[in-house]
Amino acid sequence: MSDAIATPAAPATRSQPTRSGQLQVHLRVQKLSKLTQISTWSSGIGALSSALHRALDCEVPLHTGQLVPCALGTLMRSGPFEFLLVGDADQAPSDRVALLRQHVGAEIGSVLDLSHARVRVSVHGDKTVEALSKLYALDFRPAAFAPNNFALTGHHHIPCLLHRLDAQHFHAYYFTTYARGQIDLLADAALEFGVDVTQAG
After folding, report:
1. Other Cβ atoms within 10 Å of 85 Cβ, number
2. Are 53 and 60 in contact, with CB atoms under 8 Å apart?
3. Which has more confidence, 20 or 96?
4. What is the dotted CATH code of the domain comprising 3-31+117-199?
5. What is the average pLDDT across 1-16?
């Protein structure tokens, strides 16, 4: 195998600075390898919460929009009866699903690998909130949308899970099917501030 094939390609970046050369919004597009959905029905949420507590060794978020760090990454409460586990550990997706299914049987709920079905876009820079505000009808004041929380929102009927990491740093999760169009819209919204888009793989 040649070195050209064996060496991973550098991330591809396209930049659109302002006339004065500023780049105040940065988008980094990331394919996910460890995203798992765990869900149940209205009468099963108590049992599911207990099972996740045992499996992940963490306190389960009580309300939609809350998240907690856990043994396998970050656990998000993405709905009244649904959680998303965003992984940062070494387990492969199949290992994570198998581990969770040891605790979450069919009588409690379901465990599904969604790594192929979501794309994450890291959005940061001095004008991030201004750009996002053009697309999403959210109150971005820190008192209403604090760091380490997320909101379920959308644009033109396309859903988005928007996780705030810091004042001007967010992770946006899109359905893979619609990600390209949503990323282009976000880049357009940020164009007046100067924007670059990096495809991280």
Report:
1. 25
2. yes
3. 20
4. 3.30.1360.120
5. 58
- pLDDT reported for residue 10: 52
Provide the whole-model pTM: 0.89
Q: Give Cα 154 to chain centroid, integer Å.
A: 13
Q: How confident is the model at residue 92 (pLDDT cuts 50, 70, 90)?
A: low
Nearest-angstrom CA–CA distance, 63 and 81: 10
- Domain ranges in the chain are 3-31+117-199, 35-116
What are the C-alpha distances in Å from 58 to residues 7, 36, 74, 101?
39, 16, 10, 17
Q: How far apart are CA 118 and CA 182, in angstroms?
A: 12
Name the architecture of domain 35-116. Answer: 2-Layer Sandwich (3.30)
The three-state DSSP-derived secondary structure of 80-131 is CCEEEEEECCCCCHHHHHHHHHHHCCCCCCEEEECHHHEEEEEEECCCHHHH
